[in-house]
Amino acid sequence: MTAEQKYGVVVCPKCHYPRGIKLGTKKSSCYHCSYNFTVKNLKIFYMTESEAELSEAVGRLNAKLRGGLEEYLEFLEEYENVPVGYEQLEPHKRIAAKLMHIPEPKKRLERLAFELSVELNEFEEADMVKVLDELGIRGKRAENFMKSLVENNIIYEPRPGKYRIVDSEKNMD
Ligand SMILES: [Zn+2]
After folding, report:
1. Which of 19, 87, 123, 133 has the most crowded Cβ, counting Cβ within 10 A?
2. Same domain, yes or no: 118 and 163
3. In 3-state terms, what secondary structure has residue 2?
C-alpha cells in the first residue's frame, strides 16, 4: 500500500464515456458498455492522487464530450483505440473520418476537396490517394474518383501535380 497511488481519466474507445482508472492498471473495462480496453493505448486526460478529484474530473470530461463532439464520437467508432484527440490525428485520417458518413458519391467528392483544401490548402494526388485509401477506395476506383473531381470542376490544377478547390466566389466577376 503506497500513499502515492495515482488515478487517471481515460475515455472508453468504444462508447466514449470517460471513466477513472488506477494508473498502472493494464486492462480495464468500461462502466457504460463493459468494453475491455488496454490502458496504455489510451490518452490519460487527467491525473490525480485524490479519488474525489478523480470523479470530479470524470464528470467534467463527460460533460465536455457530451456537449457537442458528435462528429468526433461517430468517427471514433471506426477507429478503435486511436488515442483520443481528434485534432491530433493525421489529417488524411481525420478527413476520411468526416467523409465516412456521407453516402452520396458526389457530396463525398465535394467534401473531400473541401476538407483537403481546408487542411492543406494546395494538395497533391498522393493526398487524395491517402484519404481514399482510408475509405477503402483504391486502384481504378480511386483514379476515377480523382478524375471526376477535375471533370466536375470541383478542383483544378494550378501547377503540375498540385490541386486546389475551385472557389466559385473568386471565379465570378
Ligand atoms: Zn464504453
Report:
1. 123
2. yes
3. coil
User: What's the 103 CA to ligand 1 centre distance in angstroms?
Assistant: 27
DSSP letters spanning 59-99: HHHHHHHHTT-HHHHHHHTTSTTPPS-GGGS-HHHHHHHHH
Each residue of 113-156: pLDDT tens digit? 988 887 888 899 999 999 999 888 899 999 998 899 989 888 99
Residue 121 Cα to chain centre, angstroms: 19
Spacing, Cα 12 to ligand 1 middle (Å): 5
Count of domains in the chain?
Answer: 2
Distance 18 CA to ligand 1 centre (A): 8
Ligand 1 center to 86 CA (angstroms): 18
Cα–Cα distance for residue pair 95/71, rounded to 1 Å: 11
Place of cell 472557389: 167
Examine residue 57 and state whether it is found in any structural domain, yes or no. Answer: yes
**Shared-domain flag, residues 55 and 95:** no
Element (H, E) at 159: strand 155-159
- Asked whether residue 79 is assigned to any structural domain, the reply reads no
Cα separation, 49 vs 27, in Å, equals 20
Q: Is residue 36 part of a domain?
A: yes
Q: Contact at 8 Å (CB) between 58 and 20?
A: yes
